[in-house]
Structures are given as C-alpha cells and as structure tokens.
Amino acid sequence: MESGLLAPEIALVARSKALEARIRRLDPAHPLNRCVNSPSPKARLIYRSYRALSPSEEIDPIQDAPWDRGFNRQARLIEVAGPDPGGDKSSFKAKFLEFLAVVPSTDLVVFTDGSRLDDKSTGGGVCLTRGGAILNTKIFSFGRVLEIYDAEARAALHGLELALDSPFWSSARKCWICLDNLEATLQLTYRSCGTSQETFNKVNELAQLYPGKIQTRWCPSHIGILGNEIADKVVGRVVRLPSPEPSPLLCTATLKREVKETGIALAKKLWGTTLPALYKDLGLYTWSSKPKSLQLPREVLDRLIAARSGHGDFTAYHLRYFHFDSLLELGNCKCKKAKTQFHLLFCKLANNKDPKLLAKAKKNPQLLFGHHCEKLFSLVYFKTEFYTKICL
Length: 392
Ligand SMILES: [Zn+2]
Description:
Layout (H helix, E strand, L loop, with lengths): L7 H17 L6 H7 L6 H8 L21 H9 L7 H14 L5 E9 L5 E9 L2 E11 L4 H18 L9 E5 L2 H6 L9 H13 L4 E5 L7 H13 L13 H23 L2 H5 L16 H12 L5 H6 L3 H7 L12 H4 L1 H6 L5 H5 L2 H4 L4 H11 L1 H5 L2
Parallel strand pairs: 1-4, 4-5
Antiparallel strand pairs: 1-2, 2-3
Helix pairs in contact: 1-10, 6-8
The site of zinc ion has 8 residues, from loops.
C-alpha cells in the first residue's frame, strides 16, 4: 500500500489488458488483429480476454500516410488562433472580438462546447449564430463513452450539421466553427488516425464537399463571448441526461483510460480484503497509486511505515520474533518506557518539547499516522526530535 505498486498478479493483468487495448488500435491487416479475430487453439486465452474488453470504435491508424496528411501545426495554429497576442486572457478576448467584427453578417458562426462531469459522462452544447443573432441552440448527451477531447469534436460535428440544416446555409459565404479546445480545433477538419476517427473523418468529408466554406476558429473559454458562454451553459444541463447516442462504443481514448483504471480498481479491491486491522483503525482504507507519503524524506517515511505496520524497533516486535539480543542492545526509550508503535504520542520527553503539538493526535492517532498525516508527522518528527535523539 505504501509503495503504490500493483501486486504482481494485478500488474500482469493490467499489462495484458493494455496490450489488448493496443491491438484495437492496430490496422485490420496486422497479424495480431488476425489472431484475436480468428483464434487458433494456441491463441485462445488472448482471444477470450480480448473479447472481454468493452466494445470500442474500430480505427484504421494507417488510413493516411503522415506525409499525405498535410498537417502543419505552426501554420494551423496561426490559422485557427492568429498570431499570439501575448499578455493575459483579455488580449485573447480582444483578438477574438476583432475577428468576429470582420466576419460578414451573412456568415454562420457556430459555437460548440464539450464537457465532462466527475462521473465521466460527457455532453456537447451548440449555439448557431448569424450576424450576432442567435439562430438556434442545441444540447447533446454522449454518455460515458467519450473523453473531453472527443466530446469537443463530436459537439463540433453536431454544430456543423445544425448549420447545414439551417435555411441560411446556402446564402452564407463561410461557416465558422468556434471551439474552446485548442487541440480539437487544430485537428477538426483533418482526417484522424486516432481516437474518434469517424467523427474527424466526417467533418473532413464535409469540408471537402464545401471547399473553403467550413472554417475553424479557436475561441478562448470563459472570457464573456456570448455564443461560447451559451454553449457552455447549455452543456452543463445535458451531461446528466441519458445518452441518446445509438452506439455504446467507447472511443479509443476512453478504452485506453478504462484499461488503465482496471489495475487500480483491482488493487483497491484487493486492499479492501487484505487490509490489516491496525490500518483499519488508522482509517487507511483507500489504496492509492501515488501515495503522498512517498514525498516525505526517506528517514521520515521509514518511521511512519514502521509505526503503521508495527515492523520496526519495537519491544513487541522483538519479542514476537525472539530478537532477545536486540532487546538487550537497543533497550527502552530514554523516558524508561518500552518502545511501542505509538509511543511518540505518550513519551514525556517528546511532549515536553511542544505539548500542544501532540495534544490532538493523542485523542485521535489517525491525525498523526492515518491519511493526509504527512505534514503533521513530518513537523512532529523534526520538532520533537523523538526519533533522532529520544527514542533511538
Ligand atoms: Zn519515551
């Protein structure tokens, strides 16, 4: 638990799942893909495990050669956001307002926004405008199958479809799709070789169908741009709705995250069943892959783990394992009391150094040895010098 490492059997399962998720991102003709789709007796295990993965989108990572994609990041950045104005958010706002001011009143401007809640459900909001007037707003729920980047792209596609259905489409010279996610804006009109390939390819097809008409623009979020604020506001209402999307397929990015979380979920489950009684008393119920205690200096962490686990220079520990030589050699604390796991709390010499510091922890040892105890434990360690000068 203190190391944040997965148990070996769980780590193996996690690696195996990660490999299977990677196979979903290989081209259909790849030998591994053929192996999991038409299994030989030798590949039966990986076939079964692969089939147990959540259904996800099928992508073709080699549909386009990189040199055929025609994507130049620097040029594209200037295209969607203009030259960097520097400064704070207000300068980006001013630049975007300048852009809006020169957009002809007959052009369509679609503001779109994707959002994700803590429960991983996503949604999209769209606000279609023309000449500063709001023509339509729409909300979409995508369920738990997308990441925020994918939700932004999907919302942009729906926004574009809304503009296509508008009676003003034919009279518009251009249709500007304004997203507040810079990466999604950069990639939007290009074919994708990764996550949400179908969505990006659809936008690309429409852009090819109307050459030069569909343009993308990055709109910085939360700077008071009306259309963006409305899209942001409506999406906040939709993410809790059930998903109307017909396909429950996960996007590639969500599958990758889900697989990554498999190991952590299994580790938490295992910890819940193997939790030592003393850890329960200290409230250490939750397993974490990145325990904060690992940030403590090595000598402090050593004492904290010894106090929690009971494996250290304690009288009971030496007696349990018949370390009679150690008992004679190391002896008791300088206050003449036996060394116990939580003796720090009750040692007179340590308390004399700063009586107030340990007062609360005496009533509730979780404060000094439980979750989020790192700051207090480190303070006590250095202030009382208990472990370095008193109880050696
Ligand atoms: Zn003592």
